Amino acid sequence: MDFSNLNINDNALYESMGFICGLEIHQQLATQKKLFCHCPVGLTNRKYDAEILRHMRPTLSELGEYDGTALMEFKTKKEVIYRLYRDRTCTYEMDDTPPFLVNQQAIDYAIRIALLFNCRIVDEIHVIRKQYLDGSIPTGFQRTMIIGVDGWIPYKDRRIQITQINLEEEACREVSDIGHLIVFATDRLSTPLVEIITGSDMKNPAEAAEVCRLLGNSMKITGLVRRGIGTVRQDVNVSVAGGTRVEIKGVFKVGNIKHLTAVEALRQKGLLELKNKFNDRFGSNPKIEYKEENLTPQFSGSKDIIGRRLESDRPLKVLGLSLPDLADFVSHPLQPDWDFGSELSGRVRVIACIDSKPNLFFYSHRHRYDIPDTVWDNIRNKWQSRSNDDVVLICGPSADVTTAVNEIKIRIGELAIGVVNETRQDMKDGTTDFERILPGPDRMYPDTDHPPVKITDSRVENNRRYLSEPLWDRQKRWVAMGLSGELVNALSLSSYADILEPLAQDNKMPLKRAAYILVGMLTDLRRSGYDLRKADRERLKRIIESALIEKWPHKRLKAALIMLAHGDSNPQETKESFSPAAFDKFWEDAQNKFNSGTSNDKCGKFRRFITGRLIEQFPHHSEEVLTRIAQRLDCK
Amino acid sequence: MNDTSLKGYKGRAKEVLQSLGGRVWANVVLQTDRGDFEGVILPRSETADGDHIVLKLKSGYNIGIRSDRIQKIVETGYKEAIYKIPEKEFPRSPEKPNVTLLGTGGTIASRLDYRTGAVIPAFTPGELYGAVPELADICNLETIKLFGVFSENMGPMQWITLSEEIGRQIEKGASGIVIGHGTDTMHHTSAILSFMVQNSPVPIVMVGSQRSSDRPSSDAAFNLRCASYTAGHSDIAETMVCMFGPTSDEYNLLHRGTRVRKMHSSYRSTFRTIGDVPIAMVTPDHVIPIKTDYKRRRNDCNVDVKAVFEEMVAIVYYYPNMRPDIIESLIDNGYKGIVIAGTGLGHVNKPLYPALKKARDKGIAVFMTVQTLWGYVQMYVYDTGRDMMELGVIPAENMLPEVAYVKLGWILAQTTDPAKVREMMLAPIAGEITEREPFDGYLILQGGIPEVEKFIGQYHR
Ligand SMILES: [Zn+2]
Hints:
Chain A is α+β, with helices and mostly antiparallel strands. Chain A is built from 21 helices and 23 strands. Chain A folds into three domains: 20-239, no CATH class; 280-435, 2-Layer Sandwich (Gyrase A, domain 2); 471-632, no CATH class. Chain B is an alpha/beta fold. In chain B, 25% of the residues lie in helices and 25% in strands. Chain B has helices at residues 11-20, 125-131, 156-171, 186-196, 220-233, 325-332, 353-361, 383-390, 401-412, 418-426, 450-458; strands at 26-32, 35-41, 52-57, 62-66, 70-78, 98-103, 109-113, 118-122, 140-145, 176-180, 197-198, 204-207, 239-244, 252-256, 260-262, 271-273, 280-283, 286-289, 304-305, 313-317, 337-342, 365-370, 393-395. Strand 5 of chain A pairs antiparallel with strand 4 (62-66) of chain B, so a sheet runs across the interface.
């Protein structure tokens, strides 16, 4: 596989590979309070008030054994620190108080979203615990519940299945994860969110990204969801023919989905090639004769990267492991700048908690390190390595090195399987890396702390009344109105889109200009501090209408909008007749008032302050006022 | 169709299951007026309504489906849940101490049945070894299941059985006793065991969990490891409660059985020593003593068991405007002892006086404790206190109300002579009355105060 010519737009290529993809979109709801306690929702950037320390312990599975995933997570033996915030967390988030009854506002919001996506609403909601041992939730499980099933949305000429919509509590924010210590902030914990699960209906990376955007935007325009960075996260399931479902967790940007799913499909293709090669070479019952040697004495005092690492204050060990007849596997590319050796590194980072970069040193990659060739040659001569034998050096705390060696052997053994059923994380550099083995439905069990919640038909119907027109219907109409794809996309996300509808009734109305005002001008104004989202909708509509009909100059419209943003919804007669002298006098007064404040920022705050004051003072001369302000302020 | 096949179902839902041939644990397709649902029919909670049927879907989620929507039930498979945990041989070695775990109910360790969500308790050494393998590094474990009752159902009968079994195990040479117990009444049991079992040569350690062991965040395994270590290795030959120190997974505290109380309905660190400091801190591999005045481990197998209890004893929690009929009803019902939890230094209102006098005249032992929990009863300071002593109410020093209650029941089963009862009540046997309250025996840090916030910011609590 050559990743230098990676083409993520070659739909035919991915379809020929049997690419299928499903989405899980996690969208926080705009409720005031959290899902199972009465803490306010919202992040804080204050320093934490207290910390507690916990460990997660796997519970026994049906066979009385610890299940594979659980055991893997337990192997990492992490100490988990939770940071607590007086204004954001209570003893529920600490797992020291049982849940309060579920937030009813959150249930109603989730019902509306489920109805929007044509789901059947369940008759009785059951709260379920979904185990997570990574520490991201202090209880060790997430409380989650099905709200709706069997929905769909229209896409192209077909329907994308919405198999399930869940309401669940958000996990903690990870602050750091170094070695055996992982730190979480609990402010985000237990924020209500809906999880939208689609069928594996997307046939190429472009479709995955488009459907994700469609679902996300559909929810955004309802006003029921939180907006901003981190309020929505996507998990993407990808598989190709002969591969296995692999889940890429926590994709932050929808824009990355196309690239990540394409790369994942190619990674699976690469692993399937390796599977065939591995089975041909080592047979159905592979017996690989690894050699191991403690090389700590050889490296202590050396000047290279390993020697420098040994100088740390903790006692570390260096172990050499031979990888016989596997060098071509190690350097087999699977993602851009990422080969099977990197795959091994990922496993070791997660399972053995050896996370210095690089955490494994391969002979095949020797040009990347400053380890002298003579060092490699000594090891290889001693082991009588042949040309396709690789050597890997592992440096870390002794117990972790043992875990690492074991994990490397396990992962190499899994070459015979091809694609491993796992979750991977978005590394934000266009690649993904191992996160954990994919947990199955056997990690779900009922939450005995919470009674079932009956959902009556009248509650469902009541919620249906709050539904606005679905995005896909709006978009169809906008396209019919002759708006460009770009404007349609921008309008899809705009909170003012509803204003366009009545204007469209009048066929003399310049709709493109109207759309531009709504998505361009109002956004610009908001960025300069004039937020019209809370302004009187009727007045906003009337101003835009007049501006369009009377063909107002840009400045006049802007002034009118600024005035509206200032809340002067009922302008009276001119408080003082306008004259340059009056303007100057008022300017000085306003400036003095402003200076007695705390800020000296003349270009941002002051500009907004003075503009607001002057337009309020001279409402019928707003164009003149804006021109004069621009002249008086030397900043742009 | 028998009862277990419709476990928990009632009303309309039960009728629908019966008429359409649905049963619990069956894999079914439910055909409804809103489409098909596929999954396993689960038992229904007894307290839930009679209108819905619970289905576990393939995704692992449960939902309730209104029974009147169901038109047809097609069974596609059946697999009954098996409530059994596989045993593994508990590794034994002569170097390790022999610890006996006595089970009273409540689960210390368990596993989940993921198909149904049921929690299956682990109890035998083999099961416990499967659940908490670290135990094998601490001791050789023997387990005896005495009864399976919830904490709130522990009573005199169970206390007596438990004490007698402890006596037998000590005489057989156990190096220590661990008692698995629900947490709600753990301090009542720890107090009565302190009286019923005296001069033990080995540690008697009560343990439980505040977060059930089916949760990854459970305190159960850590508590069990700390308790087993204490029982097998510590030199503290007393009856103790071994539970979380802070809410963080850092160390447990060993509380003297007569001075400990559950102080929060749900925190892990709910048990606190009242009016004193705990005996020690403990982790799964060492004990750090805090006090030095504890009874030491001995090599003999001698123990005094006096397992008796008079049940006609009550605690009366005084409140303003309490009427004498509360006391009178106890007198009329033949109660032999009353422990009052009074306000402040140990007070009740005047209207109760005639009833208290009547109690004294009937030979009922009445003792005063404080509902403030911390501090001593002091009835000399105010007239009301002196009046009450005239009426025969005996101040019980700094004995906790629940401790005074179990002690009085234990004494009244041995003697009804008022002078003897008084003498025995006021003579400390197991630290239930202390001569001194140390300056750090009452520390409820008040949040919000700058220095406390600084402390909370620095240490894991
Ligand atoms: Zn809270």
